[in-house]
Amino acid sequence: MAYERHRADVRAVVTDMMMPGMSGDAMIAALRARGIDVPILAVSGADTAAPLSAGPGLMRLAKPFTPSQLLLALEQAMRASTPPQAPPPPPARRGVDG
């Protein structure tokens, strides 16, 4: 799998749901089965109400779309897969004597 050679560089996957040889759903399941947990944006011109593999960072985008819509959907998928940051700890309190 090409992902293995480029693991450190891959931040997200954009895939069509209708591909020759393997559906997008099957590809997503194969990635997840290998422990690959990057955000995925699934694009399709077909019925967007069809089932889609579940998981954080998994978004669907209906064709046709503009470049701006693609970027927005990819940003949303990446944000959804990022765990929220814990707030920083409060500053240490000093004693009365300083």
- What is the general shape? elongated
Task: Say what oligomer this is.
Answer: single chain
From the alpha carbons, calculate the radius of gyration and give it in angstroms.
19 Å
Strands, count: 3
> For the record, what is the CATH homologous superfamily label?
Response regulator
Q: Please tally the helical runs, counting DSSP H or I stretches of 4 or more residues.
A: 3
Q: List the secondary-structure elements in sequence, H or E.
A: HEHEEH
Range of helix content? 25-40%
CATH first level: which class? Alpha Beta
The helix/strand class is alpha/beta
Give the spatial strand order of the biggest sheet. Answer: 1-2-3
CATH architecture heading:
3-Layer(aba) Sandwich
Largest sheet: 3 strands, parallel
State the domain count: 1
Can you characterise this structure?
The chain is of the alpha/beta class. It has a single domain (2-81), classed as Response regulator (Rossmann fold, 3-Layer(aba) Sandwich), CATH 3.40.50. 30% of the residues lie in helices and 14% in strands. The protein has 3 helices and 3 strands; from the N terminus they run H-E-H-E-E-H. The chain has helices at residues 2-5, 24-33, 67-81, and strands spanning 13-16, 40-44, 58-62. Strands 1-2-3 form a 3-stranded parallel β-sheet, covered by helices on one side. The longest helix is centred in the C-terminal third of the chain and has 15 residues, at 67-81.
Describe what is shown at a glance.
It contains 3 helices and 3 strands, in the order H-E-H-E-E-H. With 98 residues, the protein is α/β, with parallel strands linked by helices.
